[in-house]
Amino acid sequence: MDSLQLQQLSHAQGVVTLPGSKSISNRTLLLAALSQGSTQVDELLDADDTRVMLQALQQLGVKIARLGPKSVRIDGCGGVFPVTEADLFLGNAGTAFRPLTAALVASAAVNRGHYQLRGVARMHERPIGDLVDGLRQLQADIRYLGQAGYPPLEIRPTGLKTGTLQVRGDTSSQFLTALLMMAPLVLQAQAESSALVIEVVGELISKPYIEITLNLMQRFGVQVQRQGWERFTIPAGARYQSPGQITVEGDASSASYFLAAGAIAGGPVRIQGAGARSIQGDVRFAEALALMGAKVVWGDDWIEASNQGTLQAIDLDCNAIPDAAMTLAMCALYAHGTTTLRHIASWRVKETDRLSAMATELCKLGASVEEGADYLRITPPMQWRSASIATYDDHRMAMCFSLAAFATPLEIQDPGCVAKTFPDYFDVFRTITASGHA
Fold first, then answer.
1. What is the pTM (predicted TM-score) of this model?
2. Are 212 and 279 in contact (CB under 8 A)?
3. Is the sign of the CA dihedral 128, 374, 257, 295 positive or negative?
4. Reduced to 3 states, what is the DSSP secondary structure of residue 40?
5. Which residues are catalytic?
6. CA end-to-end distance (rounded Å), the chain
């Protein structure tokens, strides 16, 4: 479908069961593949990004059995991939490309493997230099096949060392995640009993995503010692061991669209699959909704949002919720006053330059928008305009702008881009909305 026409919507109410978290799904798949033993993964996200990871792992010789639509069994390879030569295509999945790059470096040090990693054109525009620089401190032989600092990459076999390495934290937290996840593999390949220390240079953004990484590593038997957010120590003897079974939480980033619908259009809307017990930072989006005046109620694995008044503008540091902060930009359209979303420079290196894309498309609807290097300032439309919204092959742009339909009819271009993380998003969105003027 080239485009999707959305009629003006009057109300949102209902219950949505979330798809599995992309961040948890792809980390879990890789950790299961790197472990000793077999792992059953349940409630796995079935979308483009996880399919890319599953395909890559199978291409590397990992045995994977499909147990059901959302369940797989993975026989771990103990940190060394059986296949020693592969050319991997990883689409635009950062949660696959970055950690796999590091894991393949560690594997190549043992199996003398030779690997290439590629993606779509946009992936080749997303920086990876900070991760490569960190890996090279371990003596990794990793080469750029195109522009320096960006994919595609080539990995050649070489021995690795332990000790201390440094990585910048201000571009993407996925670089630190990749190094943390591969660290036990490096230690496993060393004869001496030494730890591996990772120091973060500069400010670490998106800390909640590192908390997901550390939580899952612990589930697979590796306890990382953390000193603040500046120093991480992976102890000698660390090894991944299967927990046997693991269930993926519902995706908290995807929850934001439905919770926002409840806050914008009355509600109540309840999401199931993530709540007070969630390990995902994006559940804090619900706290931001509460600051805007929505009524938010929490359960252990659910959150509900509703609102009977006008939302209020906020000025918020969004470093901890970078993906869900995009949804706050849509809520700002319905708020009294001017909303400022700060500390969102990481938007520029996502599936598209989201700062520029959001500013452009919000203006089409009649909003006044100020785009800064790391902030967005949004004043609601004096008069709403119907528009054709470009989505830039970015799933979150398409899902975010569905929320504009509570004020005006609009067109969503390339709605199929939601297949990256939520293939049936628009079908689910229809279940909680009603067409026509209130």
1. 0.94
2. yes
3. positive
4. strand
5. 323
6. 29
